[in-house]
Specification:
The protein has 201 residues and is an alpha/beta fold. It contains 5 helices and 9 strands. It is globular, with a radius of gyration of 17 Å. The chain starts with a strand and ends in a 30-residue tail after the last helix.
């Protein structure tokens, strides 16, 4: 099985192709902005480096957020477009879960993953022994840190970088039905429709 991992949730644009045994090719560039322009060429480069073509890919793994509103949607949209012609499964995982798996691959610790989502707020998740104990929560920083302290974690991770090699391997045994590729927003959109209605995103 060939799995393509994609992440555009943070400052890095990152792509990996793996099979269940090894990394076939990997690229990650800290670009800040411009993910939409860089992602497709990077996917082509990674496939070429691995000696693969698009038709060789069996599954996609994409990071769903939290991240910038525009950034996280770049990889999600690309993954769904890439998968559509052959109806490939697309697994979505949060950056918070991936960070925890990177730091605690055996799932033996109480891990808190924290993303600074600006406006004095933190988006965080508790992953205890490899399982999400607390879903993604966005709170004011002071309240978040107070709550986190009561959980007595073994490890606190803040604003890490998603490794798409790990992301792809994590997705190997996961179902797209159980882990859908839907965006994980840290807060609702600022945009309002006439009459104060919120857009359905």
């Amino acid at each position: 099985m060939i799995i393509l991992g994609l992440d555009t949730t943070g400052p890095n644009c990152s792509v990996a192709s793996v099979d269940t045994a090894k990394v076939l090719a990997y690229k990650s560039e800290k670009i800040g902005r411009g993910h939409a322009e860089r992602l497709a060429p990077m996917v082509a480069e990674v496939l070429a480096d691995a000696g693969l073509s698009a038709i060789d890919v069996d599954k996609l793994a994409v990071c769903t957020g939290p991240g910038s509103f525009t950034g996280l949607r770049v990889a999600l949209a690309f993954a769904k477009g890439f998968a559509l012609p052959r109806k490939l499964p697309v697994v979505g995982l949060s950056s918070l879960a991936v960070w925890a798996a990177q730091a605690d691959p055996m799932g033996q610790k109480k891990v808190i993953s924290i993303a600074d989502v600006r406006r004095g707020e933190l988006c965080w998740s508790a992953i205890f022994h490899g399982q999400a104990f607390e879903g993604c929560v966005t709170q004011k920083a002071e309240a978040a840190r107070a709550t986190i302290a009561t959980l007595k974690p073994d490890l606190i991770l803040e604003d890490e970088i998603v490794d798409t090699r790990k992301l792809a391997w994590l997705a190997a045994d996961l179902s797209a039905a159980d882990y859908p590729a839907t965006p994980l927003y840290s807060r609702g959109p600022d945009a309002k429709l006439p009459g104060g209605l919120e857009p359905n995103l």
